[in-house]
Amino acid sequence: MSVFNIINYKFVVILTVLGICTIDIKLLFKVDYSLLVTFIGFFIFIGNISQINTIKLFMRNILNSGQRTYIWSIILSQVISNVPATMLISGFSKCGKELLLAVNVGGMGTIIASLASVISYKIYTKEYEGEGNNYLKIFTLYNLLGLIIFIPIIFLFIK
Asked: Cα–Cα distance between 63 and 118 in angstroms, integer?
């Protein structure tokens, strides 16, 4: 409801905190605040760079077709993650279908491509100490293979 501006986000935050306190206040101590700050940092970064005139001009020039939106969305997803890439690109491209397809495909690849992958990595390394490097190798191999397979398949549906 907050995303669609039906309910003010401040009310939703207060309601959520009150709900957590009512159900189980211990949950507030289980939150991964460093990851939360990372998410917030990405969104602040995206908001700030999207206001720079040079970036605006560059983004408008590279996102002038569905195919270019698709390719650049995948590339940016690998570097800044798919959700922040969506936020950044959506302000400069009118190719919503291509953007949606690209950031979903772009969630594969590097571990940063999807912040959900970062979460799963943190959970895995907490459970299996010392196995982080092995996890990253296997994760990256399978995700890059998925990316290589899906990029051209989805590209066929783009004009």
From this structure: 28
